[in-house]
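R.M. (postdoc): so does anyone remember the format we settled on? I'll just put the structure tokens first.
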């Protein structure tokens, strides 16, 4: 990796790492604060639900008291029994004015209650009078001997006229019915399935009400029922606790941050990869320029040297002359081959190369190419075996371009085989394709470089490859050509020191 690439890598890593560290640190830091705020907010919400339920019970009792006082003052028994029939929670009402003590029950008159109210609860009524003077009609709960009932002491809203006696009142309520008929509907509308509420006595022996079966967990808030001090209401968040809610929120936040960072990371990786690709390409381009200049310089120097020698008439023998002519012609062919390759490549890059596809016999074509190439192979000391499959279907090919591809493979096999100079050329069909395959026993290609050999300008970075002439365009050209044929080029197998096998796949003409 070049120094500048490493620098870019470091900058990009810092770019992702820093916000991640800050975000996580901030999130962890604010966790406690969040927890406190959420506990507070939820706590207040729970508290306000309990308050509203209590307030509702209180309001209901106040209406009953109002109605009872009115019925009593109007001496209207029908009104009184209507109240008692409507409100099953009221067991009976006791009202005392002077010596006149009346007990109203659902079944009618009942004078069993013998204690004058004001004598039984003197201090309580005193308190109520004080409240009334302050403009507030209070309803005061008191315990009764019968523990299955709750007593509610009250006074009329207005003080009696000077010549009239005070009216003392007692409402005896059935807690069970009070909870189920008065409080429960209110609880249901206030909680809306988000919360669970249970009402039980303070000794936790009797559950009067619960919104639904709940696990044995401590309620998050409890509150005494104002009108029934022996009972309390507990409230939970449904299905969770505030703590787990806070934790879940924090985990969600953290996950979100990590998720965002992952996205960022992927983005940075993509950017990094494309930068690296661009830099590799820039490097490959500059290598290409120096390779090409080097490759051009050698044949040019040879051509000009031999041409000058001939021109000066210094060559005496015809044999020598012929040899010099051959060298000049060979080197100029090399030059024009290289220039053609570059021109072809730029044509292809610009998408301007045109192909003429015709059905061709695979084996005939291969043999035709070998016929013109075999001499060159022999000169370089190579032996080439062929193993051509019979009955191959014809393939669609642009003969010139296909020949260029095969020659590129042959050229490479020659260039990158120094000791073992055996080549094997095979044809056959596989997976609906007709192929020609060239196996050499040369230097091979390291695994990590195999994917890149088809990239333009790419050359393996080893010293051996460096010493061989090349532009890095050959295989890229082959790939272009084969893709245009609807086929492809494959590096079937290659290992350093063990040679390589390249295959060209063509599409059969009759498909
Ligand atoms: P060039 O041969 O001009 O460098 P190519 O595109 O033809 O460019 O090949 C790209 C690289 O692939 C070569 O530089 C070489 O490192 C490697 N290569 C190609 N063919 C062979 C082969 N038969 N044996 C070993 N290496 C090969």
């Amino acid at each position: 990796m070049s120094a500048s690439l490493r620098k870019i890598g470091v900058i990009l890593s810092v770019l992702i790492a820093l916000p991640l560290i800050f975000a996580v640190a901030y999130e962890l830091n604010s966790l406690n604060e969040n927890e406190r705020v959420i506990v507070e907010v939820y706590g207040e919400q729970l508290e306000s639900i309990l308050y509203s339920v209590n307030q509702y019970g209180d309001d209901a009792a106040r209406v009953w008291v109002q109605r009872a006082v009115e019925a009593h003052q109007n001496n209207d028994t029908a009104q009184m029994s209507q109240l008692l029939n409507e409100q099953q929670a009221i067991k009976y009402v006791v009202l005392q004015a002077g010596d006149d003590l009346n007990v109203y029950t659902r079944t009618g008159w009942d004078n069993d209650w013998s204690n004058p109210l004001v004598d039984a609860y003197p201090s309580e009524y005193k308190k109520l009078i004080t409240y009334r003077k302050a403009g507030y009609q209070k309803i005061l709960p008191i315990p009764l001997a019968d523990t299955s009932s709750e007593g509610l002491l009250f006074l009329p809203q207005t003080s009696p006229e000077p010549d009239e006696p005070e009216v003392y009142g007692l409402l005896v309520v059935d807690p069970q019915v009070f909870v189920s008929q008065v409080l429960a509907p209110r609880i249901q509308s206030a909680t809306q399935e988000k919360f669970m509420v249970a009402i039980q006595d303070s000794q936790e022996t009797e559950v009067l009400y619960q919104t639904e079966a709940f696990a044995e967990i401590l309620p998050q808030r409890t509150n005494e029922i104002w009108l029934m001090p022996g009972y309390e209401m507990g409230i939970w968040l449904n299905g969770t606790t505030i703590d787990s809610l806070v934790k879940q929120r924090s985990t969600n936040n953290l996950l979100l941050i990590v998720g965002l960072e992952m996205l960022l990371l992927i983005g940075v990786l993509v950017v990094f990869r494309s930068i690296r690709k661009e830099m590799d390409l820039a490097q490959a381009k500059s290598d290409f320029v120096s390779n090409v200049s080097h490759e051009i310089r050698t044949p040019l120097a040879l051509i000009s040297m031999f041409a000058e020698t001939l021109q000066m008439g210094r060559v005496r023998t015809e044999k020598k002359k012929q040899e010099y002519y051959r060298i000049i012609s060979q080197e100029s062919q090399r030059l024009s081959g290289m220039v053609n390759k570059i021109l072809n490549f730029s044509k292809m890059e610009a998408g301007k190369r045109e192909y003429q596809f015709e059905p061709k016999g695979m084996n005939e074509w291969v043999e035709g190419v070998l016929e013109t190439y075999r001499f060159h192979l022999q000169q370089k000391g190579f032996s080439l075996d062929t193993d051509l499959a019979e009955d191959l279907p014809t393939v669609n090919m642009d003969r010139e371009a296909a020949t260029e591809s095969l020659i590129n493979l042959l050229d490479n096999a020659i260039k990158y085989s120094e000791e073992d100079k055996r080549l094997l050329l095979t044809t056959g069909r596989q997976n609906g394709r007709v192929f020609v395959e060239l196996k050499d026993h040369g230097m091979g290609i390291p695994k990590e470089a195999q994917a890149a050999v088809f990239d333009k300008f790419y050359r393996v970075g080893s010293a051996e490859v460096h010493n061989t002439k090349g532009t890095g365009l050959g295989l890229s050209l082959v790939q272009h050509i084969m893709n245009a044929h609807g086929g492809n080029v494959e590096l079937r197998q290659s290992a350093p020191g063990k040679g390589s096998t390249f295959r060209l796949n063509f599409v059969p003409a009759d498909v």
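R.M.: ...and that's the designed sequence above, right after the tokens. Also worth knowing: The chain has a mean pLDDT of 87. The first strand starts at residue 90 and ends at 97.
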